[in-house]
Design the sequence.
């Protein structure tokens, strides 16, 4: 015989069902998904709390590319709610003296990472509220002390999961450090005498477009209208790699197939592309802290 739960009894179950007050946990690494590394990190997080909501930012950061790890975090963090915990593991210095930290930004997000430059962009974009060094005597997976090369699993995923689940507070991460992180030097966006300067932050990996850190407001200062041309000079470590004149248009289809253009991407940043082509491959342009760009009429 089918049993029915009385309405009042069902209502009394609601508070328990709604009691979870944890935060999202977002993972990033350069591990790829060909082996079990990412699954191991998620297993540790689930072992901390089965109620956690775990998401992937990306695990396809190019190997050891701390710069790109920094940018990917900054690209997405603003779209996640306050309290979200990001775990970023791009760590070529694992086992060295670099610190393991949790950065709390003024936006209320948490970033669990080695302090190796991976926090450059989020610290600048959102501001630093506080930084704490992970106390591995407390915040480390049990019985992992003799594993020296997988801090992503044993320290960062474990600590991030405990923080996201509310098992530890930010204060319980470890000792407070000065409100600063290691920052990778690069060309900040600026204008000077009718020219604008910036950094080639990253490539659109699918299409080879070039994305810079020059924002819309700075570009608008040149008073360039759609159809106008600009002179672009690209350098790497101070050596000029490419100089060309390209038109500015809002959309790719305004130039013939195979022709380059300058446009503003979905983040409102100055970018370069080839209509139905690959700008990066065609002109052998890469991205990173050493790559800079100058734009002028």
Sequence:
């Amino acid at each position: 015989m089918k049993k029915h739960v009385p309405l009042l009894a069902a209502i009394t179950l609601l508070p328990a069902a709604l009691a979870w007050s944890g935060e999202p946990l977002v993972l990033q690494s350069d591990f790829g998904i060909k082996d079990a590394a990412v699954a191991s990190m998620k297993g540790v997080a689930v072992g901390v709390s089965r109620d956690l909501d775990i998401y992937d930012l990306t695990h396809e950061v190019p190997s050891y590319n701390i710069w790109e790890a920094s940018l990917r975090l900054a690209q997405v963090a603003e779209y996640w709610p306050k309290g979200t915990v990001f775990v970023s593991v791009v760590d070529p210095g694992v086992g060295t003296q670099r610190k393991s930290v949790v950065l709390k930004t003024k936006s209320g997000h948490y970033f669990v990472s080695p302090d190796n430059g991976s926090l450059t962009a989020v610290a600048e974009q959102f501001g630093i509220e506080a930084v704490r060094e992970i106390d591995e005597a407390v915040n480390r997976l049990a019985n992992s002390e003799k594993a020296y090369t997988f801090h992503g699993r044993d320290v960062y995923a474990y600590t991030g999961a405990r923080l996201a689940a509310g098992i530890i507070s930010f204060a319980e991460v470890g000792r407070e450090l000065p409100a600063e992180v290691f920052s990778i030097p690069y060309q900040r966006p600026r204008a000077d005498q009718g020219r604008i300067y910036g950094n080639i932050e990253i490539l659109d990996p699918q299409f080879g477009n070039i994305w810079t850190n020059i924002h819309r407001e700075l570009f608008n200062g040149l008073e360039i209208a759609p159809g106008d041309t600009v002179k672009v000079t690209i350098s790497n470590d101070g050596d000029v790699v490419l100089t060309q004149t390209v038109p500015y248009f809002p959309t790719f289809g305004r130039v013939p197939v195979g022709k380059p253009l300058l446009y503003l991407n979905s983040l409102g940043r100055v970018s370069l592309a080839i209509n139905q082509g690959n700008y990066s491959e065609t002109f052998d342009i890469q991205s990173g802290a050493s790559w800079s760009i100058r734009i002028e009429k």
